[in-house]
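[audit] Reproducing an earlier prediction to check determinism. Same input, same settings, fresh worker. If the C-alpha cells differ from the archived copy the diff job will pick it up downstream; this log only records the rerun itself.
[audit] input (172 residues):
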Amino acid sequence: MEKIVLIAGGAGDVGEGLVRAFLGDGATVVVPSRSAEKLAALREEINASARLHTYTVDVGNETEATAFRDRIAEEKGFSGAEYATFAYLHDECDFPEGEAQRVAETLCEALDEEVDTSYPGWWKNTDARRAIKVQIYQALRETDTPENLDLMSVGSELRDYLIANYVDNSNR
C-alpha cells in the first residue's frame, strides 16, 4: 500500500530530515510551505524526487488550508468530501487505494441522492445523520473491510468527516 505523508514545515531544517526519511522509506511526501524559496531549495537539495510534492500555501490559515485541501482533491479527481472520505478510509482504516476511492465516490453519490442538504443546519438533523450512517454501513458491507475494523467507530467518524466536508464545501 502506498504511504502518503504530509509534512507541514518540511522545508525547514528539522522537516527536511523527516522528508528525507519518509522518501527513503518509499513514501510519497507532500510539503506545504509559505516560502516558495524554501520549497525550491528543498527540491534542489533532495534532487526533486518524483514522490516529493511541494505547494506554496499557509496551512495555518484556515481559508488557505481549505483551498489547499480542495486543490489536492481536485488533482485526485475528487470533491472535498470525497477526498476527506478517501483519505480517512485509506490512511486511518488501511483500505487499499482503489477500494477507498470506490467507497468514497459511492458514499458521496448516496449522500447527494438520499440526504437533503439544501437547508441551513441540515447536518444537525437526526434523520439526516442517521441516513448518512445507513449509507456508510451499506457501502462498507459491500466491500472487503480490513480485519478488526470497528464498524460503529468508523461509521461515526466517517459520518462526521462527510458532514464537515459538505458543510465546508461552498459548491454544495
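[audit] rerun output stored. Observation attached for the diff report: Residues 120 and 167 are 10 Å apart (CA to CA).
[audit] end
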